[in-house]
Design brief:
Layout (H helix, E strand, L loop, with lengths): L1 E8 L5 E8 L8 E6 L4 E9 L1
Antiparallel strand pairs: 1-2, 1-4, 3-4
Length: 50
């Protein structure tokens, strides 16, 4: 029951990363601090559909 999701930068709105998550165990949207090569800094990335 894993689904592919993309992670989108909250500042520049670009999709930089893709990952998978378990739909049954994790109900809310995934949020991680990742490096954005377009902003050139660590920013919050939020899950969007891949």
């Amino acid at each position: 029951m894993r689904e592919n999701v993309a992670l989108q930068c909250k500042e520049c709105k670009r999709r930089n990363y893709t990952t998978t998550r378990n739909k049954k165990k994790q109900r809310n949207k995934l949020e991680q601090k990742k490096y954005c090569k377009f902003c050139r800094k660590h920013t919050l990335h939020k899950e969007v559909k891949a």
